[in-house]
Specification:
This is MFS transporter. Pfam families: Sugar_tr (PF00083). The protein has a two-stranded antiparallel ribbon. Helices cover 74% and strands 1% of the residues. It has three domains: 194 residues, Growth Hormone, Chain: A (Up-down Bundle); 43 residues, GTP Cyclohydrolase I, Chain A, domain 1 (Orthogonal Bundle), CATH 1.10.286; 221 residues, Growth Hormone, Chain: A (Up-down Bundle). The protein starts with 9 loop residues before the first helix and ends with a helix. It is built from 21 helices and two strands. The longest helix has 52 residues. A hairpin with a 2-residue loop joins β1 and β2. By secondary structure, the protein is mainly alpha-helical.
Length: 504
């Protein structure tokens, strides 16, 4: 899973893209002109400090991953408490995505006015409030509103975290440090599932069992989110403001101090300040109009390709695993307590796949990884569909025979692995590199908006589709994985080893 901006300020977008694409510059010798520490040899004393700063900012990604997964553990408790239909429950689960779009849309402009750190602090407060409110809802619509608020915080953090990291990270390490955000997301998913499992144990495997202060297990699961939110907020008081923002508001002395902290020993601060000022002067603030083309297709072809990548990433159904995996595991005969452990192993596989992708994306290229992932996902989803064709019962009472249940478990984990080592990472590398400089910020906003919409559609539709025919639902996801193969082969350009200027 990956959160992303939808319509943010161009400068924030460009900084985010720098974090996504710097590894290309490292391998090709191009990119952002990463002088000032090119060899990395002068960073030995500062690198630990830079890593801490990056990890603190990436806590926003941790919150995103945590929220995306925590609802998985609370779904059945919410169903038992408020008795919603499958469609209504899905809308509550997906309500956070509405907030994500709102938060991402406003974060950039706010950050340009009050700074990156202040936006992180606002996001932390909103997320903490959402956690408390979600734990104590008096009605289903109240819970949905709190999830929208939490989603707003996630949307803000998903924009500002990568942007801030790109702005403070030394050029020689920007690509690797930029990957902290994605690593934090998958770590948040894993930690959330482990916490859910512990809470469920305290409640004797009953999501509506009492745990503490009269709160039911599902309430505690949602309320515990306040802890990482508070930690995120506290971290923001220990890290410096972005030197780029400081220069934009005339605080050059502070900007120089920050650069001295994060850049290599002996870096020419005058040259670095001049470089940043020059980049800010040359920026083109792309707009929606820049994306329009002729021929009646509304958008330029490259924009459609970006939209296609974003939509395919979601239409294979990856978020179904993280939002509803506990329910899925129970359908194959696994008891509620063990189903949470299986969800945790899924998250570990997700982390492993992400690390594999990060290590390979600059070695083997983006397209080969995407094609391997699509093939593996299609086969895995096909096996899941076959397994559920042997189901008995309907809705929440679906059960699988032992053999088919084993196949479903293995194939679902295989699906997550193939997604993580390919589309989970390479889509954002593609989007950061494939657009010409003059439209990059606006094009990324449109592509990211398409991703939020596709994510929402999959999340809302899955319970209804699963009640109708779970096997056919997975066949549909498998078909999207198959269709992504010719799409990548025919339309998606390989960006490995090319500078951003060459992509223009």
């Amino acid at each position: 899973m990956r959160g992303a901006p939808t319509r943010t300020d161009a400068r924030i977008q460009e900084a985010t893209l720098a974090g996504s694409t710097a590894t290309t510059g490292q391998s090709s010798g191009g990119g952002d002109g990463a002088s000032g520490g090119g060899s990395g040899g002068g960073y030995s004393e500062n690198l630990g400090h830079v890593i801490f700063i990056t990890a603190a900012a990436a806590m926003g990604g941790f919150l995103f991953g945590y929220d995306s997964s925590v609802i998985n553990g609370a779904v059945e408790g919410i169903r038992g408490k408020f008795s919603p239909g499958s469609s209504l429950l899905a809308q509550v689960v997906a309500a956070a995505l509405v907030g994500c779009a709102i938060g991402a849309a406003i974060a950039g402009r706010i950050a340009d006015r009050i700074g990156r750190i202040r936006v992180m602090q606002i996001a932390a407060v909103l997320f903490a409030a959402s956690a408390v409110g979600s734990a104590l809802p008096f009605a289903l619509w109240d819970l949905a509103l709190w999830r929208v608020l939490g989603g707003t915080a996630i949307g803000m953090a998903s924009v500002i975290g990568p942007a801030y990291i790109a702005e403070v990270a030394p050029p020689a390490y920007r690509g690797r440090l930029g990957s902290f955000q994605q690593a934090a997301i998958v770590t948040g998913i894993a930690v959330s599932q482990l916490v859910n499992w512990g809470i469920l144990n305290l409640a004797d495997d009953d999501q509506r069992g009492k745990v503490i202060f009269g709160l039911e297990a599902w309430q505690v699961m949602l309320g515990v989110m306040v802890l990482p939110a508070v930690l995120y907020g506290l971290f923001t008081f220990t890290i410096p403001e972005s030197p780029r923002f400081l220069l934009s508001v005339g605080r050059e002395a502070q900007a120089r101090k920050v650069l001295a902290e994060v850049e290599a020993d002996g870096v020419d601060l005058d040259a670095r300040v001049a470089e940043i000022r020059d980049a800010m002067r040359r920026e083109h603030k792309s707009t929606f109009k820049d994306l329009l083309g002729g021929g009646g297709f509304v958008f330029l072809p490259i924009v459609w390709i970006g939209i296609g990548l974003s939509v395919f990433q979601q239409l294979v159904g990856i978020n179904v695993i993280f939002y509803y995996s506990a329910s899925l595991w129970q359908s194959v005969g696994i008891d509620p307590n063990s189903s949470f452990l299986y969800s945790f192993t899924t998250s570990i596989i997700n982390i492993i796949g992400t690390l594999i992708a990060i290590s390979l994306v600059d070695r083997v290229g983006r397209k080969p990884l995407a094609l391997v992932g699509s093939t593996g996902m299609a086969i895995s989803l096909g096996l899941v569909a076959w397994a559920f064709s042997a189901r008995t019962g309907k809705g929440e009472n679906i059960k699988l025979p032992d053999t088919e249940g084993t196949v479903a478990l293995i194939a679902a984990h295989s699906f997550v692995l193939f997604f993580a080592l390919s589309w989970g990472v390479v889509v954002w590398v593609f989007l950061g590199e494939m657009f010409p400089n003059r439209i990059r910020a606006a094009a990324l906003g449109v592509a990211a908006s398409a991703q939020w919409i596709a994510n929402w559609v999959i999340t809302v539709s899955f319970p209804t589709l699963s009640d109708w025919n779970l096997s056919a639902t997975y066949v549909m996801y498998a078909c999207f994985a198959v269709l992504s193969i010719p799409f990548v082969l025919k339309f998606v350009p390989e960006t490995k080893g090319k500078t951003l200027e060459e992509m223009g």
